[in-house]
Structure formats: structure tokens, C-alpha cells
Amino acid sequence: QLQLQESGPGLVKPSETLSLTCTVSGGSISSGGYYWGWIRQPPGKGLEWIGNIYYSGSTYSNPSLKSRVTISVDTSKNQFSLNLTSVTAADTAVFYCARFSSGTGDFDYWGQGTLVTVSS
Amino acid sequence: DIQMTQSPSTLSASVGDRVTITCRASQSISRWLAWYQQKPGKAPKLLIYKASSLESGVPSRFSGSGSGTEFTLTISSLQPDDFATYYCQQYNSYFPTFGQGTKVEIK
What span, in angstroms and rounded, lies between the C-alpha atoms of B59 and A24? Predict the structure, then answer.
């Protein structure tokens, strides 16, 4: 059974960079037909897609965040990562990693999520 | 980007009720529409993909329909485990977007 697990600091200072890693187990991140994505959810609010990456390194991201977002992949570790620069309190959210099926256009496996708070 | 609008935002219903949630897209998305269920403190769970295909392991009381710009999620007989928030999500032009969510509450 495929499992995804987010890891990273739970507290980040304003103007700094938020860095998270998603570790995939029970399957290979290099499986064709799937992208690997990040989604966030501010407390009490809805879901916002951040970006996706293919195992080859090809990425695409939400235009509203694109200038601040970097997504990378490490196939040797079966991991992918998110960097979000110049964070503010508005970036406080639960961050989820998920597998995206390009054939059906949905996120079919999700990590449990990790809360990242931006505060000094 | 394509905007997704769900209605209602909140729905009060009783066990055994038939429940319908609507999702409208700001432009045609063919059948690139998924539905998720989210419970407090948990990750979303995929219920329906490609507008009407039931994800493996999801009870058959859940069904989806629609194409183009209007879609519905129906729960044929609401069960206690179904009280949750539901989100639609479209996929078009490499830019997935989610609806704002519909909270199904106990009446």
C-alpha cells in the first residue's frame, strides 16, 4: 500500500524559507503516469494546490505562488521536496503531499499532512 | 484559472437522507472532475474521479454525475460516517483547482 509522509519544521519565521520533504513508501516515485504534488490548507479554510513534479524533474505550479515555489525530486531516496520562500503569516497552513494521476486528473494518495506555522 | 463553485456551503441532513452537492466550473472541463471527503484533522480522501467513476473501496451510496460545467455528488442514503466536508477538484491545463467545500452536518 502506497504511503506518503511529510516532514519538516513546524515553525518558520516570517521572510524565511519553508522547506518540507515527502517520503514515499510502498511504491516507486519513478512510476510512470503519476506526478507528485503539494497542496496546502490554511486553518479552517479550503484546499489550495501548490505544484506538481514528475520523477524526471518536470514541474508546474500555481501561478499565484510560482515565483516563491521550488519543487524538487530525489528518486534515489524516493522523496520530493517543497521550498516556499519569503513566507508570511498568510502561509500558515497544513501542507499535504499527494500522488497525482495524470490519466484521471486526481490526487489518489495523500500524506497525513503537517502543520506549518509562520511566526516570529 | 478555472474557478470551481460549490453549493451549498453547508448542508444539514439526517441519517438516511439523500444528499446532493453541486459543483460548477467557470468554463468547460469536460469530465475532469474529482470529489473528495475530508474529516477534521485528516487528509482528503478521493471518492469519485472523472466525474462519475467510483474510487476502489468507496461505498456505492456515493455517486457522481455531470460534464462540461455542472457536476453533482450524490449520497443515496446518508450514514453517520458521511458527516464531513466535501470538495470538488478540476483538472484542466495543468492547473488543478478545488471548490470551497461543502460541510455536511447532522440535522
Answer: 27
